[in-house]
Amino acid sequence: MGNTTVALVTGANKGIGLETARQLAAQGITVYLGSRDLARGEAAAKTITGAVHTLQLDVTDTASIAAAVATIEAAEGKLDILVNNAGLGTFNKPTTTEDLAHWRWTFETNLFGLVETTQAFLPLLQKSDAGRIVHLTSILGSLTMATTPGSPIYGASGFAAAYGASKAAVNMYTVHLARELEPTGIKVNAAHPGWVKTELGGEGAMLEVSEGAETSVWLATLPADGPTGGYFHKQDRLPW
């Protein structure tokens, strides 16, 4: 315990989450790498230089979340940064054929898991002098862009309805949580990483993983005069 900045990144055994952990560790931050599969998380952690610890963390499992909270509380006594990176989705189902089971599967991780994880770690974040919460969202959660002809996602609005709706819900949760926590100094923001070359984004994506982590890292390390309750890509605000 001490003055070291402590961060937790969920879903961090690969892709944007792993790169976010890497970039935070490079800034001298103690990083807890959350991974549903502990062995994969431990292997990923070995690729990072810095103070990195692996946590078994499944954001859809209450007991797993509670154990992760207990581990960080015992070791650090606080949490300064929570990056809710864990997420999933598919983009190949027309809205008319996305069955209810698929909707529930999507929301269980992208929204309910994110909310439960945030609520569980909030007491530790409230012990920080500069708490920061980052929710990974998507441009597909923007109602404005989905309904604006000529926007990057207008033509794709008939697909990935469950994924987009889950991210729109994350955006709304971000606004409400930020407003409630604003008097405490804890900043809460939503990050759209961009179309990134990950398992989810595919090889045809425009951005490298290193670029995809930039928004999360920026929001995780905001100064006292930084924004809260916003929806960003890089440092640009996106329309809700």
Automatic annotation (TrEMBL):
Domain of life: Bacteria
Gene Ontology cellular-component terms listed: membrane
Transmembrane keyword on record: no
Bilayer-spanning residue ranges: none
Gene3D superfamilies, per database record: NAD(P)-binding Rossmann-like Domain (3.40.50.720)
Keyword line: NADP, Oxidoreductase
Molecular function terms from GO: oxidoreductase activity, acting on the CH-OH group of donors, NAD or NADP as acceptor
Keyword Oxidoreductase in record: yes
Family classification: Belongs to the short-chain dehydrogenases/reductases (SDR) family.
Name under which the protein is recorded: NAD(P)-dependent dehydrogenase (Short-subunit alcohol dehydrogenase family)
Organism taxonomic ancestry: Bacteria, Bacillati, Armatimonadota, Armatimonadia, Armatimonadales
